[in-house]
What we know:
With 282 residues, the protein is an alpha/beta fold. The protein has 10 helices and 10 strands.
Amino acid sequence: MVWYKKYLTVYETPYSAVHEQVAEEVKAKLGKLGNSDPLVSVIAIAHNEAPHILACLWSLCDNLTDFPIEILVVNNHSTDATTEILEKTGVTWFDEPQKGPGFARQCGLNRARGKYHLCIDADTLYPKLYIRTMVRKLMKKDTVAVYGLWSFIPDKQHPKTGLFFYELLRDIHLKIQNIKRPELCVRGMVFGFDTEAAKKYGFRTDILRGEDGSLALQLKKEGKIKFVTSRKVRVFTGNGTLNTEGSLLNNLKSRALKAFHKSNYLFTKQDAYQDDDSNLIK
C-alpha cells in the first residue's frame, strides 16, 4: 500500500464531512509536539484549503523526528471553512489578511522560532521521514537551504502511468538545471532553510509567484542549496498546476517548449532576474 493512501480518506473532503476522529487524532498528536524551544519550525500556508488541510496536518503529525518541532499554519485570507478546521485540530495558526503566497510565507517566517524552517503547502501530503531527512541535510556544513521533489496524486484525468513518465522527464530536467540554477527548481512546498539567514532577506511580497525561488536566489549568498532527491522526501500534491494546461500530453508539450526556449539556463549561472510585469502585484 502506498504510504499516502490513508490520508486520501480525508483529502478533498468537504467541511460537512470532516472526520471527527481524525481531527481528534491530529489534535492529540499536535498537543504532544508542543515545545517552548523548537529546533524546527514547520509552517504551512493555506488559502481556502478546507478540503485538504486536515490530510496535510495528519501527515505532518505522523512524521518521525528525534528533535523538537513546532507546526504552525498561516491562514491566508480564506473564505471557506479552513478556519473552522484549524480550530478543530487545535493547531497554532495565524491570520494573514493580505492575499498572496509571499505575504503568507513571510507571516510564517516572522513567527518561526526554530533554527530551521520548513515551508509546507496545505494541499500536500508529507512522508513520515520528510522532516527528519530535510533537517539533517540542512545541518550539513555550509548548507543554507534544501529542496526536494514532488509527485502528483493520480486521478482519472491524470493516471499513475502517465504521471510516472511526465515526472521522470521533469525530474531529469530539474537535476540538470540544478547544477547552475537551483533557484529555478525550488518549490515552496518542498523548501527548507536556515531561519536567520532567510530573515535577513525575507520573502518578496510584490510578486504573484516565485517568492520561493526569489528567496533561494538570495540565500545562495549565504551558503549551498542542496537538492534532496531521496524518496524519503518526495511529497504528493494536488493537480491544480497540471489542470491549467489540460491533459498530461499538453502539459508535457508546453513545458518542453518552455525548456527549449530557456535552454541557456542549463549552462549559465545567474545572480539576478528581471521581473515580468505580468507577475508583479499592482
